[in-house]
Automatic annotation (TrEMBL):
This is Asparagine synthetase B. It comes from the Bacteria.
Length: 428
């Protein structure tokens, strides 16, 4: 793609001749950007054409900048992204302002567009995932026009992951309990979901869904340890760690896999194997939507009215802590809460090395967390859809054209561009 991008730039120069040195600035202020989400897509597109970009952390909402060409300007116009043309000298002054040790800003160079994969069930003939619910990451990638590949258990176990820099785990149940959705057992989609899951596990050589999912979880862990970037939302966050802790232990009720769970399963959990969580207790019995005590539960059990459900992003030092600063870039520090099968995390179950990026302080819950594993990184984001507070199974998908400045969706896209940054060691 780099060679192709350089060829494009060469053709531009040949057609329109040299341009006066200037930069395109994509402002990310609350009132200056019409398409916050699509601005990420334009920046990704520029990187994909072999041109480096700047991410100006904490400068005007986390703005982007790259060299000005008529082609790049046209792309901004086509996608409706607000931009400003900044002369070279003015851009240098901005970098000098950001470099001032007295201001909480940093200029991060973005070097290469990351190759993105979404872990999601098999797709139909139209390229849509077969399931009764949509995925927020897939929605926002599509809206922002950022390309991605879809893969699932077969591709992961065939060692396809090393082809990618970034992986999103769909709203998955890695414990083999079919999402603990027994309340929907009479719905046609539930039986189809169960049958497809079993057929896939058998075709891969496993006797149970839980066994195939554990193999997938361990493959992903190896990939992260080698330098991959893993992002997960909703139930995929909690069940990923539960599956790791329960390696070699049957935690599935016979309703799910045909034989009873180990009566001593709880005492056999190994929390040393998990990414984020420790000392949690598994849910009792096959009924109920909760997997464990990690999750804070649904809105009515949290005693938080939907109109008062917000969480706050931490304000990190951009110069000293660039990684969490990247992940929390936004035009507001207060984000609307939203419910999922796994909504948020009780702080007492977080490991000491877990970094909390966003929290509901009054409820003592973490909503957005991050950590390092081996040479790689992981980020967990609670909830299902940042713009649909209580999204239910089979509800229509969110129309992001109605939410082009969504702060909750911006956090997802921060993670998308994170692998493109020239990273510095965290100092605190």
């Amino acid at each position: 793609m780099i060679k192709k991008g350089l060829l494009v730039m060469g053709l531009i120069a040949a057609v329109i001749g040299p341009l006066k040195a200037a930069y395109l600035l994509l402002p990310m202020d609350a009132d200056k950007q019409k398409q916050h989400l699509k601005a990420y897509g334009v920046t990704y597109w520029v990187l994909n054409n072999g041109v480096e970009a700047w991410w100006l952390l904490n400068y005007r909402g986390g703005s982007f900048a790259f060299e000005h060409t008529k082609l790049f300007e046209k792309e901004c116009l086509t996608r409706g992204v607000s931009y400003e043309i900044i002369p070279d000298a003015q851009f240098k002054n901005i970098l000098d302002q950001i470099a001032n040790p007295e201001v909480n800003m940093e200029a991060m160079k973005l070097e290469k567009a990351p190759k993105i994969a979404v872990y999601t069930p098999e797709v139909d003939g139209k390229g849509k995932a077969i399931q009764p619910w949509e995925d927020a990451v897939t929605l926002v990638l599509t809206y922002a026009e950022i390309p991605f590949d879809m893969l699932y258990d077969r591709e992961v176990l065939q060692d396809k992951l090393p082809q990618y820099d970034w992986l999103h785990l769909h709203h998955e149940d890695f414990t083999g309990q079919l999402g603990r959705n027994r309340g929907y057992r009479n719905a046609s989609w539930y039986e189809e979901y169960r049958q497809r899951s079993e057929d896939l596990a058998y075709s891969l050589g496993y006797k149970k869904i839980s066994h195939s999912k554990l193999a997938v979880v361990k493959k992903i862990r190896e990939w992260v340890a080698g330098g991959g970037f893993m992002f997960a939302m909703c139930s995929a966050t909690e069940t990923y760690d539960i599956a790791l802790a329960a390696d070699g232990v049957d935690i599935c009720n016979e309703i799910f896999d045909g034989d009873p769970e180990d009566p001593n399963a709880q005492s056999k959990l190994d929390f040393n194997k998990t990414f984020a969580f420790k000392n949690f207790t598994l849910a009792n019995g096959p009924y109920g939507h909760n997997f464990s005590t990690i999750d804070v539960g649904r809105g009515w059990s949290r005693n938080v009215a939907p109109q008062q459900d917000y969480f706050t992003l931490f304000d990190f030092s951009a110069k000293w802590d660039p990684v969490p600063s990247i992940l929390t870039q936004c035009h507001t520090r207060t984000i609307k809460g939203f419910i999922g099968q796994t909504t948020a995390y009780k702080k007492q179950y977080l490991k000491t090395n877990v970094l909390i990026l966003g929290e509901h302080k009054a409820q003592n819950e973490a909503r957005y967390i991050h950590g390092i594993f081996g040479k790689g990184f992981w980020t967990f984001y609670g909830g299902h859809d940042p713009e649909d507070y209580l999204h239910r199974v089979e509800d229509p998908e969110t129309d992001l054209s109605l939410h082009p400045d969504s702060p909750g969706y911006r956090l997802i896209l921060n993670n998308i561009l994170f692998p493109a940054a020239r990273k510095k060691e965290r100092k605190t």
